[in-house]
Specification:
The chain is mostly helical and 163 residues long. The protein has one domain: Arc Repressor Mutant, subunit A, CATH 1.10.10. The chain contains 7 helices and 2 strands; from the N terminus they run ααααββααα. It has a two-stranded antiparallel sheet. The longest helix has 23 residues.
Length: 163
């Protein structure tokens, strides 16, 4: 069972449009770290969160998560996906075999759910502030990794008051 390109492009995980190449950034800075560059470990954690969230989404939508589908959605090579999946296996987040679907472990499912929930809170908050939904979706993809638990709690309280 495969994904059509239109389904892949409509997922919330595509950070760049197909016609816009992704720009590489060597270092990201974050104000809560005094503007210091993002460390490799922090970037690695973001990548792990993005991958498990995407794997969970693909399994829910299509019944399986394949490396080729992950590569298409994230606009990376299958080699990059393979390397990342092997790292996720070492971390105990996924189970995978060559030429087979990728599955989340219990730890992977937990991380995916946590990441999805963070993403949803940030996206909903941005929309509540008046950010257009498509932009809120894109922006929340980056913000979700950097927002503190305290800030997420404030976002949630704000959203609950609006209901």
């Amino acid at each position: 069972m495969g994904l059509s390109y239109s389904i892949v492009c409509s997922t919330p995980f595509m950070k760049h449009s197909p016609s816009t190449p992704a720009k590489k950034q060597k270092h990201k800075s974050h104000p809560s770290r005094g503007g210091r560059p993002q460390t490799r470990e922090e970037h690695s954690q973001e990548t792990a969160q993005d991958y498990v969230e995407l794997i969970a989404h693909l399994i829910k939508e299509t019944g399986e998560a394949r490396a080729i589908d992950i590569a298409r959605v994230l606009h990376v090579s299958h080699v990059t996906v393979g390397r990342t999946v092997r790292r996720l296996q070492r971390l105990g987040l996924v189970v995978a075999q060559p030429y087979r679907s990728i599955f989340l472990t219990e730890a992977g499912r937990s991380l995916a759910e946590e990441s999805r929930a963070r993403h949803e809170i940030v996206r909903t908050f941005l929309v509540a502030l008046g950010v257009p939904p498509a932009i809120a979706e894109s922006d929340s993809e980056g913000i979700e990794h950097h927002v503190s638990k305290e800030t997420l709690n404030v976002f949630s309280k704000f959203l609950k008051k609006r209901r």
